[in-house]
Amino acid sequence: MSTQTSHLLAAAAPRTVDVVRGIADDQLDLPTPCRDYVVRDLLNHLFEVVINFQGLAAKQPAEWAEKPDHLGDGWRNRFGVETDRLVAAWSDPSTLEGLSPGMGMPQTVVGGMALLDLTVHGWDLAVATDQPYHPAPEAVAELHGLVEQLGPTARKMGVFADPVPTLTTTPDLASDLTRLLTQTGRTPTWPQTP
């Protein structure tokens, strides 16, 4: 079985997994576009997302308070395995029905949040570690509506920064990824200023 969410996660996941596998040990303390997160912190956060959203697919509660270090032996391969499990967890159509008991929002939005983290944090890690990153176009296109929907609350909670003005006012001159990044408060030319 498959759902739109699992299809989009399956398209996005390998691109972020490739970035994670390309991170060298001596890059773990580099800064990232996420304020207050070095590469190591962001990797641990992304592990938490990938693992917790497996449970959220099954409408189970998620544990966000504990902050385990996921970067033990074999962490690069383990991230790939957990990401495959995430895709599989969202492949049953019942995962998209109703409200999430753990998040208090529609399951379709919760699945989209996993896609958003996987996509945007893939970019964060790529630019922090000087790697190429080409997100799944269908995932980026889908995420614009979600970011618009979640933006005001996410900004109040400090999850997104204020939108960054793009260098052009003509939408078709800015790439879909650039527009997505700016709406989440990221500067696409990071670490340079616009």
Give a description of the structure.
With 194 residues, the chain is mainly α. It is built from six helices and no strands. Helices cover 53% and strands 0% of the residues. The mean pLDDT is 89.
Q: Summarize this, please?
A:
It contains six helices and no strands.
Any chance you could write out the topology, listing elements then pairs?
Layout: H1 4-21, H2 39-57, H3 75-89, H4 107-128, H5 137-156, H6 176-183
Helix pairs in contact: 1-3, 1-4, 2-3, 2-4, 4-5, 5-6
Keywords, please?
194 residues, mainly alpha, Four Helix Bundle (Hemerythrin (Met), subunit A)
CATH superfamily (homologous) name of the domain at 4-134: dinb family like domain
Individual helix count: 6
Terminal Cα separation, in Å? 44 Å
Low-confidence stretches: none
- Quick one: CATH class of the domain at 4-134? Mainly Alpha
Tell me the strand percentage band: under 5%
